[in-house]
Amino acid sequence: MTAATHLVWLRNDLRIADNPALAAAADGEARVVACFVLDEHSPGLRPLGGASRWWLHHSLTRLAEALDRRGIALVLRRGAATDVVPALARALGATRVDWSRRYGGAEIAVDKAVKARLRQDGIEAASHNGALLYEPWTVKTKTGEFFKVFTPFARSARAGGEPAAPPPALVPRPIAGRPTVAIETDSLDDWRLLPRAPDWAGGLRATWQPGEDGAIARLAAFLDAGLRGYADGRDRPDQGFTSRLSPHLAFGEISPRTVWHAAAARLDGLGGEPVPARDVEKFHSELMWREFSHHLLYHRPDLATVNFQPRFDHFPWNGDPAALARWQAGQTGYPIVDAGMRQLWQTGYMHNRVRMIVGSLLVKHLLIDWRAGERWFWDTLVDADAANNAAGWQWIAGSGADAAPYFRVFNPILQGEKFDPDGAYVARYVPELARLPASVIQKPWTASPQTLHAAGVRLGESYPRPVVDHDKGRARALAAFAALQDA
Ligand SMILES: Cc1cc2nc3c(=O)[nH]c(=O)nc-3n(C[C@H](O)[C@H](O)[C@H](O)COP(=O)(O)OP(=O)(O)OC[C@H]3O[C@@H](n4cnc5c(N)ncnc54)[C@H](O)[C@@H]3O)c2cc1C
Fold it and tell me: Residue 375 is part of a domain; what is its CATH number?
């Protein structure tokens, strides 16, 4: 008797360990084939940004190698998933297809359509939770609604039980071996995910190791060198306390429960020195923000484009393209902002504290629509995530659920002085200011001509003057946002 074939459709779960869809497909005697579909055709699916495309190329390369070592072929196909997945399943003679659930509206619509087509063809289809600690419909208020405020959301989710522990073993090697039918696969190079002419990815290559092995190494490095002291150190962009697991989590190269439990184990000193509870709790709390963002996206599928609070629909945003361009290029004249925007451009990542500072400057001081910032981040972040990015921007703008209050306007000078006190972060990403003393590096326009000269800084030439005066920008923002409150 020939063995059955199971197809696992991989998407944002590009890993082998703790991958419930892959484990389900590989359970039993069946042959397993994996596929990834580059779907730029289904309505409503947002095309990946440039940095994500770079990451995806490398992640798929590593995944194909890892699957191959376990006797599983990774088939690459481009097209509308609603056509491609059922057609592939039929061609393979697959009896079932497994995948990990996604939580965006368009993605859910695609997955439902695929499921319906497979079932029409008599093929079993099963979806699994491979991305979240708590799926959005499992956490509800007492009146059965979804949570709009983080703290009660997190409390309620965790009251239902701590996240399940990941299974100890890797997915078993399928014993039935490779399918006997020849399977056509696209060549990854033909997808042209990598930038050419120009190749702007040098900084990304120098910074990241996409793929499951890179994720596991990153987690280990964080547990050894970041978690202890995380609660206080996580706000310091000049130091290395945060995990930088975000792109690995966004592509599903590591499961959130693996990360959660690895951190929890350090409480007892398992695998290393014991870590204070407040550090582990703070880290868990950040993972819960990721959960909350997905909760919001599931219940508000238009989170990236529509104000969560409708009164913001009438906000008089200022569409100043020159100011937006200066912000994107890291030329605002506020060193901490410019350091963040250049870190983003060079490495595809920005420290969370600095995301808040640059976001606040854009939407408050410059009164530019948060959606312009969201789109720029979407294109340039290696961790661009439909839920976290949209929720983060709406939080900054004040238009979101549980958002920053409208009168909270980050002061980019004080923020720089507080969180980058020696100016090391600025010096790294804005090298033309590196020789300024710490006392003025966050506000070079206050330095004496002698100090500027000694540091080789020519204001307005080698480094710009502020795009907007802080006090004036703040006052203008407060007036505009206060008018909205009264409306
Ligand atoms: C305007 C804005 C846009 C953002 N866009 C994204 C995005 O596209 N993708 C993304 O993953 N995060 C986004 N964030 C959240 C946060 O900045 C990043 O998750 C974090 O900086 C990633 O670095 P890390 O892995 O070292 O974080 P750590 O401090 O080590 O946190 C661990 C993990 O928790 C999650 N997390 C941490 N902070 C948040 C948060 N505020 N909201 C949701 N999840 C969080 C991430 O998955 C992160 O990897 C955004 C924040 C803001 C203010």
Answer: 1.10.579.10
